[in-house]
Design brief:
The longest helix is centred in the first third of the chain and has 21 residues. The chain contains 17 helices and 14 strands. The chain is globular, with a radius of gyration of 25 Å. It has three domains: about 160 residues, Rossmann fold, CATH 3.40.50; about 200 residues, Rossmann fold, CATH 3.40.50.1980; about 30 residues, no CATH class. Helix content is about 45%, strand content about 15%. The protein has a six-stranded parallel sheet with strand order 1-11-10-9-12-13, sandwiched between helices. It is α/β, with parallel strands linked by helices and about 425 residues long.
């Protein structure tokens, strides 16, 4: 990891680096837009033929292999799973479900005056597609993180797509009760779920993380199909003045090992801590090839002139994962996907077991939204009801506003009911 001071002689270089990091989401996906456009266009035009072409090219799907993973395959995978891992999956599922239940928006009504009732009703989406990466590592945790809140929301049709699904992922699908699981991934899977093929019917919304190709494809299809967010390569920021160097380094290495494109950053005004973390990261990443590549390319330690500057820089970067020293730090946090507090909250707990979702905003999308939640799977629909008395009380105001805007028909639609 490189160490950059944001003050003194290093100020200009630091500001240039920070500016580049602020554009990271846009710059990353631009590298793959052309090939993703070709893939999405081909799958949209040719359906299964296009889907199979790219699944064979990128995922090694054999000709004649069923795209749909059968219930029997999922059951066999579950039965072959070690009891220790089965127990972990059940615990994770229970915590994710409990957290999603607590997040569910409520229906309510108010009456601002007699004869007028307003409120909201909550309805689940009819269908969603859950993307579960399957490239470097099996990610059964992501299947549980995407499927479980959809189930809590009441979504009727839940589709899972994952390339070369590992036994662990199929086992998670079994315990989750998944009935549509397709062994396809990448931009081609996103296109299939968004536009539909002969085998995979289109869905209303696609959720889940992925590499640059998946992220670019989600953005590309977002006008035809809802998406949660551009959840691209992993990001971690640790903002600390007094943390344990070994623990901080462990979190940085852990997130860096996801992807060579992952972003790992420490922000501190404590020079001694910065140097100690740099040494620890080098030692702990040794032998972890992907982490080493990621840290060499994107790892950075910012040493700021003050604590206030460290806090401001953190909010500028709007990281996916953020670790802070203490509960009091939550007061200054404005932009982050998920926050981990204190020395005993490793980010890996959030990745697997805590309950809050690990599908989180990257590329500074944390400025405008948080992580995946049950609210991504529901619609909040507003409702308005008037009696004659209520219309007579409020109608003149509506007429006045309509006439001020020059919309005679709007005014008349109220006036005709007030005769």
């Amino acid at each position: 990891m490189r160490l950059v001071k944001t003050f003194g002689r290093g100020r200009s270089a630091a500001e240039a680096l920070i500016a580049a990091l602020e554009q990271r989401g846009e710059l990353n996906t631009s590298k793959v837009e052309k090939i993703v456009t070709d893939i999405v266009t081909d799958v949209r035009r040719r359906g299964d033929l296009g889907l199979r072409r790219y699944a064979a090219k990128f995922d090694g799907l054999q000709s004649g292999t069923e795209l749909l993973v059968s219930p029997e395959e999922m059951k066999v995978a579950w039965d072959a799973t070690a009891p220790r891992l089965q127990a972990a999956m059940k615990a994770a599922q229970a915590n994710i479900r409990a957290f999603a239940e607590a997040q569910k928006p409520k229906e309510w009504t108010i009456s601002p005056l007699a004869g007028v009732t307003t409120g909201q009703i909550v309805r689940s989406l009819e269908s969603v597609g859950c993307y579960v990466p399957g490239g470097r590592y099996p990610l059964p945790s992501t299947l549980l993180m995407t499927v479980t809140p959809a189930q809590v929301a009441g979504v009727e049709r839940i589709v899972v797509c994952s390339p070369k699904p590992a036994r662990e992922t199929m086992a998670a699908a079994w315990i989750a009760g998944v009935t549509e699981f397709y062994r396809v991934g990448g931009a081609q899977a996103i296109a299939a779920m968004a536009y539909g093929t002969q085998t995979i019917a289109r869905v209303n919304k696609i959720v889940g993380p992925g590499n640059l190709f998946v992220t670019a494809a989600k953005v590309m299809v977002s006008q035809a199909c809802g998406i949660d967010m551009p959840a691209g390569p992993t990001e971690i920021v640790v903002t600390s003045e007094s943390g344990d160097a070994a623990g901080i380094a462990a979190d940085l290495v852990a997130q860096a090992e996801h992807d060579p494109e992952a972003l790992a950053v420490l922000i501190t005004s404590n020079t001694v801590l910065a140097e100690a973390v740099k040494v620890e990261v080098k030692a702990q990443a040794k032998g972890n090839l992907i982490a080493m590549l990621s840290l060499a390319a994107h790892g950075c330690i910012f040493v700021t002139e003050s604590v206030a500057e460290a806090q401001a820089l953190t909010n500028r970067l709007a990281p996916e994962h953020l670790t802070v020293d203490a509960k009091a730090d939550l007061k200054w946090v404005k932009n982050a996907g998920s926050v981990f507090v204190g020395a005993y909250a490793p980010q890996s707990m959030g990745d697997y077991i805590s309950g809050p979702n690990h599908v989180l905003p990257t590329g500074r999308v944390g400025r405008v939204r948080g992580g995946l939640s049950v609210m991504d799977f529901v619609k909040v629909i507003t409702v308005q009801r008037y009696t004659r008395k209520g219309l007579w009380a409020m109608g003149p105001h509506a007429i006045a506003l309509a006439e001020a805007e020059g919309l005679k028909g709007h005014a008349d639609s109220v006036r005709v009911r007030m005769r």
